[in-house]
Design goal:
The protein has about 120 residues and is of the alpha+beta class. It folds into 2 domains: about 1-45, no CATH class; about 60-124, no CATH class. It contains 7 helices and 3 strands, in the order ββααβααααα. It has helices at about 20-25, 25-30, 45-55, 60-65, 70-80, 90-115, 120-124; strands spanning about 1-5, 10-15, 35-40. It has a 3-stranded antiparallel beta sheet with strand order 1-2-3, with no helix packed on it. The longest helix has 26 residues, at about 90-115.
Amino acid sequence: MRNQKHSDGKDYRIYANYAACGKCPKKDKCTQGKHRQILRPLYQDTLDIVDERTRNNKTLYRKRQEIVEHVFGTIKAVWGYKQLLCRTKPKICAEVSLAYLAYNMRRVFNIYTGSGVKLAAELA
């Protein structure tokens, strides 16, 4: 077992059992080389645990979709905010923060106007 950076830029863990492949009677059906290598992304074990936890807690996952993912769906699909204008991480963080701030302000406004509370602009 070893780690290697692949041509796609991602790190992979390579599994190979050279001794077992050399003696295996089905080797010609499995690989054309001297032995078979299996590539797994470096953090695939963690992703498998998350997938298993999601499968076992479907109601919790659906609740998360209702609460959290609604924000992203609204900003992306309804507001049309599908791509970023800036480059580099600090600028992207600022741009996305402004979008979320606008979402939160709009949400607060809708909550207050729906409850009958008078806003400062309405009092003047």
